[in-house]
Each structure stands twice: as C-alpha cells, then as structure tokens.
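Q: My labmate handed me this sequence with no annotations at all. I'd like to see what the chain might look like in three dimensions before we decide whether it's worth expressing. Could you predict it?
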Amino acid sequence: QVQLVESGGGLVQTGGSLRLSCAASGRTFSRNAMGWFRQAPGKGREFVAAISWSGGNKWYADSVKGRFTISRDNAKNTVSLQMNSLKPEDTGDYYCAATSRTNRPYYTSMNEYDYWGQGTQVTVSS
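A: Here is what I predict for the chain of 126 residues:
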C-alpha cells in the first residue's frame, strides 16, 4: 500500500520559515516526478511546486517563486519544501503528491498525480 506522509507544518509569523517533508512508503518514486499542492480555507487546491525524478528540473507557482524551494532525496524516498519569507496568503493545508507518469519531467495539474498525502497545516500569522 502506497503512503505519502507529510510533516513539518505549523504556526509561523509573517516572514518566517518552515520546512515541509514528505515520506513515501509502499513503492519507490525515484523515477517519478513529485509535487506539492496547497489548499487555502474556502478555496480549491492549487499547485505550488514540482520536481523531476532526478531533481534536475523544478517548477514553481508564480506566487512562491523565489521564496520556496523543492528538493528530494531518492535514497530516502522523500521530498521536501523549504518555505521562506512566508506570508499570510501562504496559509493552508499542504499536500505532497506523486505521479506514475513518466512522459514529462514534472507535472503541475492535480489530475496528473496518482498518490496524495493527507496534508499538513501551515498557518502564517500577520
């Protein structure tokens, strides 16, 4: 059974930092892209960042570019999201996702991901 488990969420002040981690079990994703999405209260889930299987290709939503960094450790089957200069609008539940697709280096649409974690909550106070 494939599981993605996020950790690292919490409450932080504006301008602060958090590091989210996602541990995969049940299969290896070392040859698959992975990504992070978020869902703010009362809004739909949106793309945040994605990374190719090798880590050589990364893509970010415009709203987080320059502040967030996605990385992965294939030996540990983990993906991380370093979030700096956090803003109140970054508040939401953050979800790790993995895809079985291999035709592109990374993916930015929810429907391109097959596996999802349960989410970790991030709250940025003003």
